[in-house]
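Hey all, quick one. A colleague (J.T.) asked me to put the iron/sulfur cluster job into the tracker so the inputs and the structure tokens live in one place instead of scattered across chat threads. No bug as far as I know, just bookkeeping. Sequence used:
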Amino acid sequence: MCSGRVDLEFILRAFANGADGVFIGGCRLGECNYITHGNYHALNMALLCQRIMEHIGLNPARLRVEFMSAGEGILYSELVNDFSKAVRELGPLGSSENLDRGELKSRIGEISKLIPYIKIAKREKLARRLGKGEDYEQVYTLAEIDQLLSEASSYYIDPAKCQACMTCLRRCPVEAIEGGKGLIHVIDQDKCIRCGTCLEVCPPRFAAVRQVSGEPVPPPLPAGQRTLVRKGKEKAE
Ligand code: SF4
Ligand code: SF4
């Protein structure tokens, strides 16, 4: 697989499935055969993922990205051997970090839900082509990632304002919104990836979607109470 296809999701999934280390090998920077230069993308993804790993308590040394040409077999074997040795010294995943498998899986699961949010927030940085001499360790800092993740908002549909226009339901990229014609819509918080699209697309005259930060999201309206009663009809009844 081209290193340009490397994604946070793949790396985190490998750790969630118990990999002790992840090694990403790509073509030399600046020597990609295609205009996409996907190896810069892989580098950015790996650097960002290392800080995310730190955030959840995993040693970032369990992830390494290296670049080499197809003719550098010896270099490749040296790098892989070196990485294998480093991972062996770290021990099984979570052991040197004092994290048990269940806790680790749950932390990775929570972060994985935020991948779209992280990628949107960091899209400009992720598009950069880092120079060979740059201090890669400082491209993404732990403080920056801690702040980004602490600011991740949830979204809630105010049942008193929702007019069942279905715009948010149609635009949600992960089908996290339940609703339908004549039904007040609700967000399934377990499916929501916090992209903020529903907030953007809810017509301003309804303004039914609310951003929630630093407080619990109110519980969803029970399924039996979601029929929308329009104001005029309410009076007529
Ligand atoms: S923020 Fe809104 S649009 Fe985005 S995933 Fe969550 S419910 Fe769907
Ligand atoms: S876009 Fe707004 S008003 Fe329309 S269904 Fe969604 S939350 Fe309700």
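Adding what we noticed when we looked at it: Residues 50 and 60 are 5 Å apart (CA to CA). DSSP finds ten helices and six strands in the chain.
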